[in-house]
Batch of 3 targets.
Target 1
Amino acid sequence: MILNLIISSLFGFLIIGSWVSAFVFRIIWDRQDKEFEAFLNSNRDRLLSGESCEYKGELYSLNTGLVRYTYCFSIIVITFTRSSALRPAKKSSREQLICILMTLFGGWWGFPWGPIKSIQALME
């Protein structure tokens, strides 16, 4: 009985943590996307001419692979699908793990779209 209570409490904390994480990371990733967009706009001509430009210690060129991960979270009957900030493909494993964990703990249980959107987010 106590074990069931502990497991239920832990699971509840994981779900609430997923919601909070989704909110916090959305703010952070939106800000990072705006900063990256400003970098791209200010270096547009250099990048289009084939030059490499440095942004936060990373060199970017036209050939730099970028990724964005999808995650979802549900609140009772509403399921939200969002995406992470753009990242160089070779430095994106942390964001991928964050998106997977938010989807696994906070996305699946919304009715009726939670399980469907969670599977879609994990497949992308």
Note: Residues 50 and 71 are 33 Å apart (CA to CA).
Target 2
Amino acid sequence: MSSIFKSLRQVEFRDTDAAGIVHFSVFFLYMEEAEHELLRSRGLSVLEHSDQGTISWPRVSCRCDYRSPLRFEDRVQIDVSIARLGSKSITYAFVFSCEGRSVAEGEVTAVCCRLVANEAPQSIEIPDWMRQRLADQP
């Protein structure tokens, strides 16, 4: 659906487990950081404040399939694309690679919600101005 946004990071020692490889849970942090970078590149944030309240994107589904390990000081490229832009949700696709080697693939689905103090988040239609920025090619 959209072009690919590329994010690069170096594996830190804190990201590794006793076996010396990146702990599986860290991939979810990497995906979230890469998502935030993509949003910022389009003039957006995971928290948008307006006169009508705050809009945010709670996750409703996350997965990651692992192909090969990453180790301390590896440089990992994370390719992010918008796989689906629905009326109330967005699904991001992530492809991890290191020196041309396939490392992992993941997916995150988040729902556009209005946040109101002391209430559960309420799903809303993605506002047109936000949809336009999400749909734009970087």
Note: The longest helix spans residues 26-41.
Target 3
Amino acid sequence: MEKEARSRIQLTKQWVEKAVIGLNLCPFLKIPWQEGRVQTLGGPINDLDSLARQILNDLNQDKFETSLLVLNESPVFSDFYKLFGHLEDSLAQLGLDQQFQLVAFHPEFVFEGLHFEDLANLVNRSPFPTLHFLKK
């Protein structure tokens, strides 16, 4: 499982370099990526709250500018989005939603009201379920 997790992280990094940065989908990511200020780590769903606390602590201490958490498992999109909603609610309950933002990426990402094939969905599609933690 550890080898698979490392492979998911490596493939996600390649996606960031080729798609997100290469296609300039997020112009704000290029410089922090080149400067090594983007944390990319993997972890299991059952440890999501602990991993989120670690990431938020790292961002708070300015160890990184932004963090990508690549999940070791691949839940279906609806289950993944429930996890994402749980983390967003947790941020709000802790009063951290003004300090941090979460963005969800998933291979099956679909914006509400759009069809799966709609090109607008590609903005949030990634090779593996990934949570992006941004410091505002």
Note: The chain has a mean pLDDT of 93.
